[in-house]
Amino acid sequence: YRLVIDYSNGLLSNILPMLLEDMGVEAVALNGMSTEASAKTHDVASSSLSKIVGPMECDLGIHLHPAGEKLTIVTRDGLAIGPQQLLLAAAELTWRAHPKSTIAVPITATSRVEDLAKSHDGHVLRVKSDHLSMMQAAAKGDVVLVAGTRGGFIFPGWQRGADAACALANILELLARSGAELDVLVAGVEPGQFADAIVPCQWRHKGALMRKILEESAAMPRQMIDGVRLQVNATWLWIAPDRRNAHCRSQAEADTREQATRTLTEWAANMAAWRTELEQKTLHETVAPSHTTMHA
């Protein structure tokens, strides 16, 4: 393989070149000084790579995030692969090499990963959407890959945490073993269309609001991991209380963005109405006059 790699002036610029050389990979380095992390945003860096991968006659462009945990891959045609699509591509390659195996993904991962699993007799383990839960999943003996939704991957045979160098080495090995071209592979593993929303909610009402959501969704297919993930007709909807702010987060995935947005809007409106009921109930209980019985 011939790669062009944007190191973002991160520490991997001191380690990865030697690993790639041992693998017989030719690499052109960009921003390879490990003195100060690059100030370029992820989108700007990916856009720059997209413009030079083809003219430099490289097979892939790689953008490594400064901390060295996540990566973005650009195909030879200049397509910056989105994180959900990269998750699917890594899962497809892994199941080709290890059919019937188990791959762990966050609860917010695209529902298309279950479709891929069926075609390889594989299994999907959904976990909370945080790095600690991903690391704990990697420690399970039957998980061969933990694929994140933000460009982070854990290959348990190599390491217990997300590491972009290990992820790149493993993805290159899987590509070589399968004989697949990444640009062709990603074209066949499209995720659904996503929509996101935030519904403000006071801290003291979060628990009651989530209980109301569980009551209303009792008859729906659902998973209660890090909030609740439920199927609303042809749309998958995830709702969870934010851990740091006074609101609840929601994400919808459907075949079209319009469908995802419509379902998300309907449920966000319902959540806002239920929240208002909770607030009014609390206010009524607070201001209701107390009745004192006088004894002679």
Q: Trace the largest sheet across and list its strands.
A: 9-13-12-11-10
What share of the residues lie within helices? 25-40%
| Number of β-strand runs | 13
What's the helix-strand series? EHEHEEHEHEHEEHHEHEEEEH
- Cα Rg: 23 Å
Poorly predicted tracts of residues: 292-296
Q: Structural class, from secondary structure content?
A: alpha/beta
Task: Please explain how this structure is put together.
The protein has helices at residues 16-22, 42-52, 83-97, 112-119, 131-138, 164-178, 182-187, 206-216, 257-287, and strands at residues 2-6, 26-30, 60-64, 71-75, 102-106, 123-127, 143-147, 153-154, 193-200, 222-223, 228-232, 235-241, 247-254. The protein starts with a strand and ends in a 9-residue tail after the last helix. 38% of the residues lie in helices and 23% in strands. The protein has 9 helices and 13 strands. The chain has 296 residues and is an alpha/beta fold. Helix 3 (83-97) packs across helix 6 and helix 8 (206-216) crosses helix 9 (257-287). 39% of the residues are buried. The model is unreliable at 292-296 (pLDDT under 50). The strands form 3 sheets. The chain has a 5-stranded antiparallel β-sheet with strand order 9-13-12-11-10. The chain has a 4-stranded mixed β-sheet with strand order 2-1-3-4, with helices on both faces. Strands 6-5-7-8 form a 4-stranded mixed β-sheet, with helices on both faces. A hairpin with a 6-residue loop joins strand 3 (60-64) and strand 4. The protein is elongated, with a radius of gyration of 23 Å.
